[in-house]
Amino acid sequence: MNSFSLDGLDATGIASARLSLPLGQVADDKAMLRTAAEMTRDLLAPRPALYWTDLLLSTAVGYAALAGAILFEPLDWAIVSWLVSVLALYRAASFIHEVSHMKHAAVPGFRLGWNALIGVPLMAPSFTYEGVHNLHHAKTRYGTAEDPEYLPLAHMKPWSVPLFVLVSALAPIGFLVRYALLTPLTILVPWLRRPVEARFSALCINPEFRRRPTEGEAMRRWWQLEIATSIWAIGLIAATATGVLPLKAFVILLATISGMMAINQVRTLVAHLWENEGEEMSLTAQYLDSVNVPPPATLPVLWAPVGLRYHALHHLLPGLPYHSLGEAHRRLSTAFDGHSPYHKASYDGLPGLLNRLVRGTLRSR
Question: Could you list the residue ranges that cross the membrane (predicted)?
Answer without folding.
Answer: 49-71, 77-93, 161-181, 231-257
